[in-house]
């Protein structure tokens, strides 16, 4: 962002016609953004080697300063755009969580971790558990194996030591030029924020494996540097508070509904959990993730039939979904709405809609799957890759007036999230 405020007029669907004169320029700009961003995370990924000495909370300057881009403040909940409204029909299915509903999820819950021999061998036709185009998979696997991308396969055997966890907790120092609670951020403020990470129970050194729990994100959730919703605005010379409050230094990104995460730690008040996803690690609200065992985790993330959101925003049975969100399709035995009440199944599946499995939390915080029929805005499987397909979906952000949002805040997308969504 260059400081110039831009406004975009919302286009009605009938005006969403392509203007061929701008397509070559738009294509070049989009390709440049894709190449430069690479859908990578900020520095401090879990693939970075642990440092010899842990960083002390009172001296954040001893850690590598992350690359802060431009992002906006977190909002309590994004508004659904008019273009996100779609026809839906919901049906309820029996809870499918595999955990004991009598047990409250906590770090003390006993789990039996299967050995590496019990885990299925990698399937060379899949990427992150889903069937994928061979050429696309080959490229993505190359990215996954490159430690500089910071990507992590949550379906692999987790190998986090106590030392790894401390390194991850301390990976992102808080800005020295911040504005917090109506005043300039002080060292006392900074240390109080670091204290929220609840490092007390963790050993400073240790090679033993950290306990891992499994979760599925149930609603779009902010990934935070420390477990708090309170913002630390990044001050910028020549601008005032109205500009600063677009950029919250504690906001890293946002995980979509259906994202699988590995839960490694929790805050002292147990309202937040520290988790590793496929592209980031950080703190998320405990209320935004449903816990399950490894079997349930793998079952949801590796189903052969799945659907991808193809609109910037989609109102799916009251739940806001973002482009690129991947959700499983329910098995026929779980209830096909076209066959309810003895009605014959329609042959036109596109008109009938897709029976999507939405992850929810039950009353004890465990995974429960609710089904709803989505009739528009989702595509079964990944879309075929082509320049025209990329342009078609990138242009939707322009025509629908989707704003930029630092770390995906303010119902927007930041640069890397936009590229990854497309």
List keywords for this structure.
422 residues; alpha+beta; five-stranded antiparallel β-sheet; three-stranded antiparallel β-sheet; 9 helices
Structure characterization notes:
Strands 12-11-10-6-13 form a five-stranded antiparallel β-sheet. Strands 1-19-18 form a three-stranded antiparallel β-sheet. A three-stranded antiparallel β-sheet has the order 5-4-8, with no helix packed on it. It is α+β, with helices and mostly antiparallel strands and 422 residues long. Helix 1 (23-37) packs across helix 9. It is 19% helix and 20% strand. The two termini are 20 Å apart. The chain is globular. The protein has one domain (13-337, 349-421). It has nine helices and 20 strands. The chain has helices at 23-37, 134-145, 162-169, 187-195, 241-244, 294-301, 349-352, 387-399, 415-421, and strands at 88-91, 126-127, 130-131, 178-180, 183-184, 213-217, 221-224, 233-234, 251-255, 260-266, 272-276, 281-285, 289-292, 306-309, 313-316, 319-322, 326-328, 354-361, 367-374, 378-380.
Task: Map the helices and strands.
Elements: H1 23-37, E1 88-91, E2 126-127, E3 130-131, H2 134-145, H3 162-169, E4 178-180, E5 183-184, H4 187-195, E6 213-217, E7 221-224, E8 233-234, H5 241-244, E9 251-255, E10 260-266, E11 272-276, E12 281-285, E13 289-292, H6 294-301, E14 306-309, E15 313-316, E16 319-322, E17 326-328, H7 349-352, E18 354-361, E19 367-374, E20 378-380, H8 387-399, H9 415-421
Antiparallel strand pairs: 1-19, 2-3, 4-5, 4-8, 6-10, 6-13, 7-9, 10-11, 11-12, 14-17, 14-20, 15-16, 18-19
